[in-house]
Design a protein that fits this description.
Helix content: 40-55%
Structural class: alpha+beta
Number of helices: 9
Strand content: 5-15%
Distance between the termini: 24 Å
Number of strands: 4
Order of helices and strands: EHEHEEHHHHHHH
Shape: globular
Length: 212
């Protein structure tokens, strides 16, 4: 199994957490998103993933993009520990929260969006930061409210789920951009608990061989 990713990519970070939680061996192949004009745009990688994004998982004849699809695939082939509950209502709630983060929060501060803001749209760094903080706060306000109804040590009770796998990279990203996390005590508590677990530490950006 091969994982093409970038150490600081939130989406690749999600997949690394899932692999670590399940104890699955894989070969990590770095794709630097900035060096050489962005290695994700090179023809060899574009052939592998026409969207020119990370991560990409290659498992024998299967080539799969989209981090949530990859995590659910891993959950299917290696069922323990389960990352999505078996009970349909609980499963739907976990997936909904994961999608809140992966679809509504993360894309608005993704690298290619930020490059477009400061490139063709010619926003200043200050304006870019204001954009990032606005959309992070918008997403985290709703997420904090939802978590007050469901959280234990993790997003849903005390067991790590797909929701936590999405939350931790997003908070890491928010801290990197200097967001004040004071208004989000539940999010902060979950982030700190998850990062105390060995699998999350193993998957952390700074623990990757290509971190720089």
């Amino acid at each position: 199994m091969k994982l093409y990713g970038y150490w600081r990519s939130s989406a690749a970070y999600r997949v690394r957490i899932a692999l670590a939680l399940k104890g699955m061996a894989y070969e990590s192949i770095p794709v630097h998103l900035v060096k050489d004009g962005g290695q994700q745009h090179q023809a060899s990688y574009q052939e592998l993933n026409p969207a020119e994004l990370v991560p990409t998982l290659v498992d024998n004849e299967l080539t799969l993009n989209q981090s949530l699809a990859i995590v659910e695939y891993l959950d299917a082939v290696q069922p323990e520990p389960a990352l999505v509950p078996a009970e349909p209502k609980k499963a739907a709630l976990v997936r909904a929260m994961a999608l809140d983060i992966a679809c509504d929060i993360h894309p608005l501060n993704n690298l290619r969006v930020l490059q477009y803001l400061t490139g063709p749209l010619q926003l200043t760094e200050q304006q870019k930061t204001a954009w990032i903080h606005h959309w992070l706060n918008t997403g985290f306000q709703a997420l904090e409210q939802r978590l007050q109804q469901s959280a234990g040590r993790c997003c849903f009770g005390d067991a790590v789920s797909l929701a936590d796998i999405c939350l931790v990279p997003q908070v890491y990203n928010a801290l990197r951009f200097g967001l004040d996390m004071t208004p989000y005590p539940t999010i902060q508590a979950i982030y700190q608990h998850c990062n105390s677990l060995a699998a999350f530490a193993q998957a952390a950006p700074e623990a990757q061989a290509d971190a720089q």
